[in-house]
């Protein structure tokens, strides 16, 4: 049993993480502790120093691949709480007039989608396009979660960070987080742990409905002009579209998109379009184009592929899965082997390098492939 605030703070030993990662990989943590308050982080830090251990922070386990049993201390983020913060009490000054904006500070251990549902019910909007994304609030800025035309950079105000190297807490403004496409400063700061995020939510019910077939679905389902849909209707549309393409990890273990959509030069995209006129691509800043990796993989015939307990989802080629079933003994390494095969095939045909999107952890710590 983990003990709080005590010099004899000790983690649990030999904890199976199968139910703590959405790939349901039965990896064992030699030491495991739930972190429910800031003091737990200090105690865990002392413990790591005393025992010469590395550490790993586990959130919802929805964006990580565990390839081996973990010798390090696994800390499970469970700092919860939601508080409305008056603008004058924010750490970072508000740039605009802030009229109609309400600031909500949320503990890193809160469930993301519960927060989305709760905020809409409270009449504070901006999260609806990010409905049903698995995982915890603290992980949201790390990969700048995004879906259906929105990402967290549009509503993030500030982030509280605990530095495991110095035992200090500090605040970063959204701008300081360097949020990019599935990227942020946090991916390059291995000692930082997000303990809470503060979101700037809007009292006005403005909606963004221009992604893919969202507007068409809303108009058909709710018999209204898509721009006049309520945030709750947008949430329902996103849930419908998401569920029709992305497997529910509770039934089919997965980590969502396995690769980032690759960003290439407009010249390379033009050359590719000559060879593949139907290629799916979106403008991405000056001189760059983002390719739909799902399309590239799908065209090479991988959709629905299955072998040795791992495979490619039938409805979305960008999603690698572990097949359901208690007798599935496939490992994180098996998934990575499939990922390497797909990367090689895509590189051979399109000269495009696919980058793995979730983070990969071996017993020695985070690794890249
Ligand atoms: N496509 C295919 N075949 C496939 C999959 C996709 O042809 O098997 C083509 C289709 O033309 C489709 C296009 O690719 O219109 C884009 O597909 P989709 O709308 O499903 O989105 P995505 O680019 O594959 C990204 C995010 C998702 C997010 C959706 C919706 C990344 C890496 N992934 O996927 O995020 O939900 O857009 O906004 O950017 C995640 O990060 O885990 C994730 C699920």
Secondary-structure blueprint of this entry?
Elements: E1 12-16, E2 28-35, H1 38-51, E3 55-58, E4 64-66, E5 70-77, E6 82-85, E7 101-107, H2 112-121, E8 146-147, E9 150-151, E10 156-163, E11 168-173, E12 192-202, H3 214-222, H4 231-245, E13 254-257, E14 263-265, H5 266-275, E15 281-283, E16 288-291, H6 293-299, E17 306-307, E18 310-312, E19 319-322, H7 332-350, E20 359-362, E21 365-367
Parallel strand pairs: 2-5, 3-5, 4-20
Antiparallel strand pairs: 1-2, 6-7, 7-12, 8-9, 10-11, 10-12, 13-19, 14-16, 15-16, 17-18, 18-19, 20-21
Bound molecules: uridine-diphosphate-2(N-acetylglucosaminyl) butyric acid.
Describe the 3D structure:
The chain has 369 residues and is α+β, with helices and mostly antiparallel strands. 23% of the residues lie in helices and 27% in strands. The strands form six sheets. The protein has a five-stranded antiparallel β-sheet with strand order 6-7-12-10-11, with no helix packed on it. It is globular. The structure holds uridine-diphosphate-2(N-acetylglucosaminyl) butyric acid. The site of uridine-diphosphate-2(N-acetylglucosaminyl) butyric acid has 20 residues, from strand 13 and helix 6.
């Amino acid at each position: 049993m983990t003990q709080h605030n005590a010099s004899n703070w000790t983690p649990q030993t030999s904890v199976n993480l199968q139910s703590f990662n959405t790939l349901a990989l039965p990896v064992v943590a030699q030491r495991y502790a739930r972190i429910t308050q800031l003091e737990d982080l200090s105690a865990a830090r002392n413990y790591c120093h005393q025992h010469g251990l590395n550490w790993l922070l586990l959130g919802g386990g929805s964006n990580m691949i565990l390839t081996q049993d973990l010798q390090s201390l696994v800390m499970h983020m469970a700092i919860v709480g939601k508080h409305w913060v008056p603008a004058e009490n924010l750490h970072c000054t508000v740039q605009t007039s802030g009229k109609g904006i309400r600031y909500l500070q949320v503990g890193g251990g809160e469930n993301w989608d519960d927060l989305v549902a709760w905020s809409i019910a409270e009449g504070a909007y901006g999260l609806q396009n990010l409905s049903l994304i698995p995982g915890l609030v603290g992980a949201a800025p790390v990969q700048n979660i995004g879906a259906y035309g929105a990402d967290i950079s549009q509503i993030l105000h500030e982030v509280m960070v605990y530095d495991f190297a110095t035992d200090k807490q500090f605040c970063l403004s959204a701008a300081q987080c360097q949020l990019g496409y599935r990227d942020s400063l946090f991916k390059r700061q291995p000692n930082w742990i997000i303990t809470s995020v503060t979101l700037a939510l809007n009292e006005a019910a403005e909606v963004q409905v221009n992604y893919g077939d969202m507007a068409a679905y809303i108009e058909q389902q709710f018999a209204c002009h898509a721009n006049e849909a309520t945030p709750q209707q947008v949430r329902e549309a996103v849930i419908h579209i998401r569920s029709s393409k992305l497997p529910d990890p509770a039934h089919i273990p997965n980590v969502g998109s396995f690769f980032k959509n690759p960003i290439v030069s407009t010249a390379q995209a033009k050359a590719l379009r000559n060879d593949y006129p139907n290629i799916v691509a979106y403008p991405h800043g000056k001189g760059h184009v983002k390719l739909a990796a799902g399309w590239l993989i799908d065209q090479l015939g991988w959709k629905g592929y299955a072998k040795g307990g791992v495979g490619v989802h039938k409805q979305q080629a960008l999603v690698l899965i572990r097949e359901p079933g208690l007798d599935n003994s496939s490992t994180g390494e098996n998934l990575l082997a499939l990922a390497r095969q797909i990367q090689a095939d895509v590189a051979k045909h399109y000269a495009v390098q696919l980058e793995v999107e979730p983070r990969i952890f071996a017993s020695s710590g985070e690794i890249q492939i």
